[in-house]
């Protein structure tokens, strides 16, 4: 299975700022399909030739988190910006637990071929 490719220079220069603007102006949580639609509309308005894929959008959200740009929370309510440190730490814990679960699944799968 192929790993997703890193964000391109054009995505970082042209698309990331549009997604950042959407998040900064959010009034309430937003689910991925609506976020994707808004980002696509922004790209179209700005005459940026880019087809938004949810997988790339998730990668951009992780780019914000990994580079300490925006404290984006993703939970059953959708995506939104954290309002306090408690939310940020809860999200960090959730991400670490998911990573541990994925690593455990990968280790289990590898045992099939040993």
Strand fraction:
5-15%
The end-to-end distance, rounded to whole angstroms, is 19 Å
Number of domains: 2
Oligomeric state: single chain
Structural class: mainly alpha
Helix content: 55-70%
Architecture per CATH nomenclature, i.e. the level-2 architecture of the largest domain: Orthogonal Bundle
Please give the order of strands in the largest beta sheet.
1-2
CATH topology of the largest domain: Arc Repressor Mutant, subunit A
> CATH class of the largest domain, please?
Mainly Alpha
Overall pLDDT confidence: 94
Count helical runs: 4
Shape label:
globular
E-strand count? 2
Reported for the largest beta sheet, the result is: 2 strands, antiparallel
In short:
With 114 residues, the protein is mainly alpha-helical. The chain contains four helices and two strands, in the order H-H-H-E-E-H. The model has no long low-confidence stretch (mean pLDDT 94).
Architecture overview:
The chain has a two-stranded antiparallel sheet. The chain has four helices and two strands; from the N terminus they run H-H-H-E-E-H. The radius of gyration is 16 Å and the shape is globular. The protein has two domains: 1-81, Arc Repressor Mutant, subunit A (Orthogonal Bundle); 83-114. The chain has 114 residues and is mainly alpha-helical. The two termini are 19 Å apart. The mean pLDDT is 94. The chain has helices at residues 9-24, 32-45, 54-66, 85-110, and strands spanning 72-75, 78-81.
């Amino acid at each position: 299975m192929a790993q997703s490719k890193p964000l391109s220079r054009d995505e970082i220069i042209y698309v990331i700022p549009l997604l950042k603007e959407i998040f900064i102006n959010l009034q309430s949580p937003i689910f991925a399909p609506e976020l994707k639609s808004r980002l696509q509309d922004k790209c179209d308005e700005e005459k940026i030739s880019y087809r938004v894929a949810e997988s790339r959008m998730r990668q951009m959200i992780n780019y914000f988190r990994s580079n300490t740009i925006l404290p984006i929370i993703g939970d059953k309510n959708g995506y939104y910006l954290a309002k306090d440190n408690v939310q940020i730490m809860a999200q960090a814990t959730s991400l670490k637990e998911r990573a541990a679960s994925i690593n455990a699944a990968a280790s289990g799968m590898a045992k099939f071929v040993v």
